[in-house]
Specification:
heterodimer, A: 482 residues, alpha+beta, Rossmann fold, OB fold (Dihydrolipoamide Acetyltransferase, E2P), 6-stranded mixed β-sheet, 9 helices, B: MetI-like fold, 2 domains, 76% helix
């Protein structure tokens, strides 16, 4: 593919706000002409900033942005052939619908007839033909959104940027508009770059999805790729429902989790490698166990469960919620793992059930980290300094190093203690991200200095909870820094 | 019969002191001015007071001159005030609130004191008092009344509208002319009203800053009541009514935007 095929190229763009916060961290993205690309991520992940850099409202601190191969990094917004549909519409309240839509064309000094023709055409495209002379304030949210889209597309931009355009609409309206947007995209042939935090919207609309978190792109791929082959726990957790478990890759195509071995299709992780395993709740087959202690007599009246040599595991239904199309069950196994299962059949709480998953539905991911790693420095008196604090270490560890040595500090996830009162800990931080791993929580704690500490715990914490952090001397391991 | 507590508890009961106040200090004086304007000192109906005004060229000239000065003051205040309000509202100042406060700060001091201080300032630099000093004093005193409502509308304006205009191809000048200015008209209207109305009727500033050399319409009224004795009250009332009419008219101009303007004040 030659460079010319890309309409937008974002090359290693970073953006640091004046207060020093890094909102975009080396982001690269190529968009093909006519493509519908969605930038997806939770609030504060930098997706809107990325869009604003493309629109020109913000200038990238580093990196460059090309449009049709031309550098537009420093070009002011009014000179870029892109138009934006704003989240809160941003219609001009002193102009009526017609004048709002005609705003861009009038600036281009086109003649009256052309303007009228194009405005009418644009209003027709969005289904607002009869509203030309209405006051924008008298329109409903959905109608204002349509006018905002008309105002943008009437300029026939190379790229249409949409900043969470449907966020303010109610669910039903949003679904309708999604379909209409998709239609519009097909009809107009304009490249769409769409920002949203709604994963379902992203999967429905896009040719490609860009998943962002913490200013970084986590994954770029088609909706099916993103859904079926998430590259890490964040993507798996953010896109759809999922069961994420710690596992071990025994060898190629054989993985162990939940204390059992399963066939899978993944290769190349090595032997006995720690991995994360993702199983979508709708991929788990579930059936009622006929009689206790006789797992052969399963109740499967409709013959739904695939026959074959699959690894099965068993548990008890704990909760069952009707979700409209399917039921969502939480099943707890005897060895303490919890699975979320979706099925069209209802399994009431207390039911003994069997479960299986096909090898191709087991998604295995490389673990991003196995323990906390910090840069540290050995001090006098058996102390080591890291995260701007002095921590005591056990004598046997301390005597291997002399003061001043640069060390790499390792702390296992489960050895970090979280305390209810921040003052009780050596450090204080907020719960930043929570991942349920079937039998425990994997938390990301962000300290006040912006460092991340990862913690495995059985305690329930909420997003944003304040906590104190304590690490026992015996849990701190040191290695000579390279 | 209702219980006393029910009467006290009713919300409308609480309005009565204010209604009484309004009747005593607003409606009644207005009524008195109206009655006085159309009567002789002995209480007979007459239009003589108005005829006297229109026949005295000095009074009519003063009237026209006052309106001209008020208009000029308003225009100068607008020209000075709009950019100030714009800068405060849009520039990324670290402390816009402090700057806004600095503009408002002089208003904490009684305007007579400020005017007297201005006189001393002019004397100190040996600048002759007169029309220029008068305009300076008026603008100095009323500029905050222009800045504040404009600052208010500009500050409340949705930033994304400016971005939207840029996005649609407008350069800085076009954004201002096509979006910012039209959207700040309510603030401009209320600024104009708040400066024009009081400047038409002012008299202390003119007396102090021109050493009574220039007489404004307000002074005329003040003299009719203060120096003319009881005989002149009817004439003074007629002058007041004429001024009231002018002020009333200004507050109606811009009819549609007037309500918005009121909400900004």
């Amino acid at each position: 593919m030659t460079k010319q095929d890309y309409i937008i190229e974002v090359n290693h763009v970073s953006k640091r706000f004046e207060d020093g916060k890094l909102v975009l961290d080396d982001v690269s993205l190529q968009v093909k002409k006519g493509e519908f690309v969605t930038i997806l991520g939770p609030s504060g992940c930098g997706k809107t900033t990325l869009l604003r850099c493309i629109a020109g409202f913000q200038v990238a601190t580093e990196g460059d942005i090309l449009l049709k191969g031309e550098d537009i990094t420093q070009t002011p917004p009014h000179k870029r052939p892109v138009n934006t549909v704003f989240q809160k519409y941003a219609l001009f309240p002193h102009l009526n619908v017609y004048d709002n839509v005609a705003f861009g064309l009038k600036l281009k000094k086109l003649d009256k007839d052309t303007i009228m023709k194009r405005v009418k055409q644009a209003l027709k495209t969005v289904g607002m033909s009869d509203y030309e002379f209405r006051d924008v304030d008298s329109l409903s949210g959905g109608q204002q959104q349509r006018v905002a889209i008309a105002r943008a597309i009437v300029n026939q931009p190379e790229v249409l940027l949409l900043d969470e355009p449907l966020a303010a609409l109610d669910l039903k309206m949003r679904k309708d508009m999604q379909l209409e947007l998709k239609e519009m995209h097909k009809k107009l042939g304009i490249t769409f770059i769409y920002v949203t935090h709604d994963q379902e919207e992203a999967l429905t609309l896009s040719d490609r999805v860009v998943v962002m978190s913490e200013g970084k792109i986590q994954q770029i791929g088609t909706p099916t790729d993103i859904y079926n082959e998430p590259v890490n726990c964040f993507v798996a957790d953010f896109i759809g429902e999922s069961n994420i478990l710690n596992g071990t890759m025994i060898r190629d195509k054989r993985v162990e989790f939940c204390d059992q071995e399963f066939d899978c299709v993944d290769t190349g992780f090595g032997e006995d490698a720690p991995v994360d395993v993702v199983i979508r709740p709708e991929d788990i087959y579930i059936w009622e166990q006929g009689a206790k202690n006789n797992k052969q007599e399963d109740v499967d009246p409709d013959d739904r469960v695939p026959k074959g040599n699959f690894t099965k595991w068993y548990g008890t239904v704990e909760t069952c919620i009707f979700k409209g199309v399917h039921y969502e069950m939480s099943v707890k196994t005897e060895n303490g793992y919890e699975f979320m299962v979706q099925d069209y059949h209802e399994f009431v709480p207390g039911t003994q059930v069997g479960m299986l998953v096909k090898p191709e539905d087991i998604q295995v991911m490389q673990k991003e980290r196995l323990w906390n790693t910090f840069d540290g420095e050995m001090l006098e008196g058996g102390l080591v300094r890291f995260l701007d604090e002095d921590w005591p270490v056990s004598d046997s560890v301390a005597e291997r190093f002399s003061p001043g040595d640069k060390v790499e500090v390792r702390v296992p996830f489960e050895r970090v203690t979280l305390l209810d009162h921040e003052d009780d800990g050596v450090l204080a931080g907020d719960v930043h991200f929570i991942l349920y791993k079937g039998d425990h929580y994997h938390l990301t704690i962000r300290t006040d200095d912006g460092d991340d500490i990862f913690v495995d715990t059985n305690d329930v914490w909420d997003d944003g909870d304040r906590c104190g952090i304590q690490i026992a001397p015996s849990s701190i391991r040191l290695a000579k820094a390279e | 019969m209702k219980k006393l507590s029910a009467i006290i508890g009713a919300r409308r009961t609480w309005a009565w002191p204010y209604v009484l106040f309004l009747i005593l200090f607003v409606l009644l004086p207005l009524l008195l001015i109206f009655v006085y304007a159309f009567t002789t000192p002995t209480g007979e109906f007459t239009l003589k007071n108005f005829v006297q005004f229109f026949n005295t060229s000095e009074a009519v000239n003063t009237f026209i001159y006052s309106i001209a000065i008020a208009l000029l003051t308003t225009i100068i205040c607008l020209l000075l005030g709009y950019p100030a309000a714009y800068i405060m509202a849009t520039a990324e100042l670290k402390t816009p609130a402090v700057m806004a406060m600095l503009f408002i700060l002089p208003m904490w001091i009684n305007f007579l004191l400020r005017t007297l201080a201005t006189v001393e300032l002019f004397n100190m630099f040996s600048i002759p008092l007169g029309e220029g000093a008068l305009l300076y004093g008026m603008c100095y005193d009323f500029l905050p009344f222009m800045i504040y409502p404009i600052y208010n509308t500009l500050q409340k304006m949705d930033r994304s509208l400016i971005e939207a205009a840029h996005d649609l191809g407008a350069n800085g000048r076009e954004v201002f002319a096509k979006v910012i200015l039209p959207l700040s008209t309510p603030g401009i209207y209320s600024g104009i009203i708040m400066v024009f109305m009081p400047t038409v009727s002012t008299f202390a500033i003119s007396e102090l800053l021109t050493r009574n050399k220039i007489t404004l319409f307000g002074s005329l009224i003040q003299r009719a009541f203060g120096e003319g004795g009881l005989q002149m009250w009817n004439y003074g009332a007629a002058l007041s009514l004429i001024m009231l009419l002018i002020i009333g008219l200004t507050s109606f101009f811009g009819n549609k935007d007037e309500q918005e303007a009121q909400s900004v004040i």
